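Input structure tokens:
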């Protein structure tokens, strides 16, 4: 099930990230913070797998009935990818995925802690100074940036003294805007999100864009206060991008997004919002809303605990009985051949003494095989029973329905009764 959750997360995250691309254009056109779009995409990409795992955990208890439903697209893809695995192999795969997930999270945290320690060591070489009337830390390779959470401070490279005073003032104002907006906390949240779900590439992309949006929003606030300084500010951004600069862990920096969004920042810094952007903004907002709806539909479709087609063995401690019910068609219904392997009784339910019933619907093709792509649950007392039935179907054989002497496909409903041998 972990593999299905991961696929579901990536697919939903893709919808949210594309929605954020459209939404940021609409927000920028209306003078709103672009970060809002990427905060939403980041939170969604982070929260989807955690909420789905929680939902699966809550669904693990037996229930009297389950609503009729078809296999979701993600579950079909997951089943196709692992179609040669049995239940035990799926459990082993999930175990490996959980282990790799934990190792990746731990490795990321270790990397962050090492980078923080390295920055702390470098800070011992910083010296106190003053730039544009503001107290700052002077460094050789760090900044302009904000460091610290509870008591944020500004660090700037010593080469800033070579800039004109107007650009020095703008650089300090940029960092002060970060402090006023508490951007250092947003940066910390992004790091924790990556540490929690390090395997989601769409989350990494959303966070990368979020960091760029934080800088762009900060640019907009500085220029809103000093609209006549666009040319000087653009020159400042170019100068900072050309300086040697080391990443400030859990911080926000004027030149941090230079490699990814320098062109976009310069366009926004040097141009005014045009009236023509209103139509484009409306179209972008509409597209973003549509994609958010799609992403929500995917993310709220919690995968059922079904297994992929696999070879199964009969259990000597339990019995699974199945019988055929005729379909609503006038055609003779397909009949199961003798010797079909039974659905395996889930070990955990047998151990707990849980019995149950499953009623499923599927198409038997003209060769007497169950078409698992048509599999639909009509009623089930437990997801693990459903999983066992779905796993057993590919090994079952039927005498196909006949029409004018020829074998044809036909939809059937078939119940399965899970009873523990007394």
């Amino acid at each position: 099930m972990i593999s299905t959750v991961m696929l579901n997360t990536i697919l939903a995250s893709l919808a949210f990230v594309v929605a954020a691309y459209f939404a940021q254009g609409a927000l920028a056109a209306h003078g709103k913070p672009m970060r809002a779009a990427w905060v939403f995409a980041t939170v969604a990409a982070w929260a989807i797998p955690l909420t789905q795992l929680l939902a699966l955990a809550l669904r693990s208890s037996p229930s009297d009935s389950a609503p009729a439903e078809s296999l979701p697209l993600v579950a079909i893809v997951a089943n196709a990818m692992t179609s040669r695995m049995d239940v035990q192999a799926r459990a082993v795969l999930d175990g490996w995925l959980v282990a790799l997930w934990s190792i990746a999270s731990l490795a990321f945290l270790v990397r962050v802690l090492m980078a923080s320690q390295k920055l702390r060591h470098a800070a011992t070489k910083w010296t106190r100074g003053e730039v544009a009337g503001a107290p700052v830390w002077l460094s050789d390779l760090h900044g302009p940036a904000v460091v610290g959470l509870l008591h944020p401070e500004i660090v700037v490279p010593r080469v800033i003294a070579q800039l004109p005073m107007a650009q020095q003032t703008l650089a300090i104002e940029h960092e002060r805007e970060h402090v006023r907006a508490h951007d250092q906390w947003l940066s910390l949240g992004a790091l924790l999100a990556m540490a929690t779900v390090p395997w989601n590439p769409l989350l990494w992309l959303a966070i990368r864009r979020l960091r760029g949006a934080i800088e762009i929003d900060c640019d907009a606030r500085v220029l809103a206060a000093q609209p006549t300084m666009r040319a000087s500010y653009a020159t400042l951004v170019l100068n900072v991008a050309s300086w040697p600069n080391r990443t400030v862990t859990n911080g926000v920096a004027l030149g941090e997004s230079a490699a990814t969004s320098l062109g976009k920042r310069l366009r926004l810094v040097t141009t005014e919002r045009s009236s023509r952007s209103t139509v484009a903004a409306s179209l972008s907002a509409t597209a973003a809303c549509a994609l958010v709806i799609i992403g929500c539909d995917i993310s709220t479709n919690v995968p059922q605990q079904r297994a992929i087609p696999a070879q199964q063995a009969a259990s000597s401690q339990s019995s699974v009985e199945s019988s055929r019910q005729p379909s609503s068609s006038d055609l003779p219904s397909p009949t199961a051949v003798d010797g079909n392997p039974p659905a395996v009784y889930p070990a955990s339910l047998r151990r707990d003494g849980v019995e149950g019933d499953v009623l499923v619907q599927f198409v038997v093709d003209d060769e007497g095989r169950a078409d698992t792509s048509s599999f639909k649950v009509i009623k089930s007392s437990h997801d693990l029973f459903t999983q066992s039935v779905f796993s057993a179907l590919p090994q079952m054989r039927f005498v196909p329905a006949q029409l004018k002497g020829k074998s044809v496909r036909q939809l059937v409903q078939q119940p399965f009764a899970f009873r523990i041998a007394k």
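The radius of gyration is 30 Å. The chain is about 50% helix and 15% strand.
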